[in-house]
Amino acid sequence: MDKKNFLFVSLTGLISDIAWQVSKEGHEVRYFIADKKERDIADGFVAKSKDWEKDKEWADIIIFDDTLGQGEKSQALRAGGKLVIGGTAYSDKLEDDRSFGQEELKRRASISFPTANLNPSTTPSSTCRRIPAVTSSNPAAKRRTSNAAFSSEKKTTARTSFACWKPTKELFPTKSRFSSSSGA
């Protein structure tokens, strides 16, 4: 395999292990971490970039490891002919705005997971017990999800909303192929 120049772009240093592995495989690596307090992550393991935008011309492949606007940057670089691993503005919105993601799931798959807005007087465990497993307007989706193992609740915060999952039935058999016969 031809050696390539990889530029890793991270908001908080979440992709250090992959950058290091790519470096160990003989490729050139530069690693940019936006958060100044996190920039010492992976020091001594990979070369760092002080300004990823200046290094983008050097890079054969650019890898973004997060959402929060990184998808727009990925799309712009792709439009300019760069090879980019990362999201899109749409995938960022799916991840960063869970209410939007639920609406897209309903619209595209005719399936939705029940949600509930939580407030300080509502505990997640009590809310999970009150919510049915899965709802759908699509008969085929109802058959696929009638034995769903999860219930869902939604909590809205000032920054974003997120789904909280809680198992509602036994997911694994009592005897597991991974457990020893002695129970230890």
Topology:
Layout: E1 5-10, H1 16-24, E2 28-33, E3 47-48, H2 52-55, E4 61-64, H3 70-79, E5 83-85, H4 89-96, H5 98-109, E6 111-112, H6 124-130, E7 135-136, H7 139-145, E8 150-156, E9 161-167
Parallel strand pairs: 1-2, 1-4, 2-3, 4-5
Antiparallel strand pairs: 6-7, 8-9
Helix pairs in contact: 3-4, 4-5
Question: Any overview of this molecule?
Answer:
This protein is of the alpha/beta class and about 180 residues long. The protein folds into two domains: about 5-90, Rossmann fold (3-Layer(aba) Sandwich); about 110-165, no CATH class. About 30% of the residues lie in helices and about 20% in strands. The protein is built from seven helices and nine strands; from the N terminus they run βαββαβαβααβαβαββ. Strands 3-2-1-4-5 form a five-stranded parallel sheet, sandwiched between helices. α3 runs antiparallel to α4 (about 90-95) and α4 packs across α5. The protein is elongated, with a radius of gyration of 22 Å.
